Amino acid sequence: MTRLLLVLSSILFLSACTSTSFLSKKSPILNDKAFETASDFNVETPEEIFALSDDAVNFVKRVTQSETTDFGKMSALVFAIFDRADLDLGYSAEANTVASDTFANGAANCLSLTVMAYSMADYLHIDARFQDVQIPEFWTFRQGESIINRHINLRVKKPARRFIPSMVNGDLIVDFDPSRNAKKFDSVELTKRQIVSYFYNNKGAEHLINGESAKAFAYYKAALEADPKNEGAWLNLGVLYSRNDMLEHAEEAYLHATSLKSNYLSALENLANIYKRTDRLEASKSLEARLHKKRLKNPYYHSMLAEHALIEEKPSDAIVHYKQAIKLNNRPHEFYFGLAKAYYAIGDFSRSSDALKKARMRSNDRRTSEQYSRKISLLAYNH
């Protein structure tokens, strides 16, 4: 099955931002003429992305009013954001929203959570830092698309001799799952401008998934104007070109992405697809073999193969791939949920239920655990 990979900062560089003259002087890859109506669409300004509503400001004041230190205020704020009796913010991979909408909707992905939390910290005059958590390649699927996820969160440095819950190495981490994500992987600090670029890239991907090419181009262009070294935006721009049969432009975009990040496997996979579509079959096969070898030790790669096997109605193959993923890493609840779906597809309801129970046990999110409990009960009732 041929697929193109999109990059999203939903569950996400090193370099400082450069001037936007990079685009006009050195990059003919941006083809405005192919998407002329893109200029009619106004993307959100950085100010709009980070602005807080009056309700959000009042929330910040209320939950921090009893605290006297910056760190105490931030700790109280983080607790209130996730507390069931307060904001009770829930996770939604598709919630690519500005700060005010994230607060109003009560749902966020890692990027929109980070944007909102940063704005709240900024209102309190607290120094908070954006982080790119260096997770391995991690795939999700939406509307038939393969999506590579990157992960960001927010860090507030610890004061001397102070320990507070939700902390990693003493620092306060604003994340849906701070202990799982931040303890196991290194992090790289990001600038606010890079975060703006990631926001635009996410919005562009959403429009591309929905078949809105001109709007997608408008966001990708904005992403690259904010940070010309955002390799994920170059990759997604290549996907946009490929979808519109602009294969030379797509190849240029993928190659540029690989020049910004060495061993950029997602861009190389899409490049292999371009080679295949342009009858460079030997080059395509060679690149695909190289990618497969590099990914064999990544459990999420096997999970991705399993997901595609389910889509292709090959549940027995999916079981093999999910078991390999679990062998490499038995912690992610998603692997067991996928295994449960595969067992269900072959009519093995007992093993499906067992896998769901293991998924529930490994879930760190209350809403997800409750969903697993409902599925287990429904399975027991019907079978």
Automatic annotation (TrEMBL):
Keyword annotations: Signal, TPR repeat
Residue spans of the TPR repeats: 197-230
Leader sequence residues: 1-16
Pfam families in the cross-refs: TPR_17, TPR_19
Protein name: Tetratricopeptide repeat protein
Originating species: Agaribacter marinus
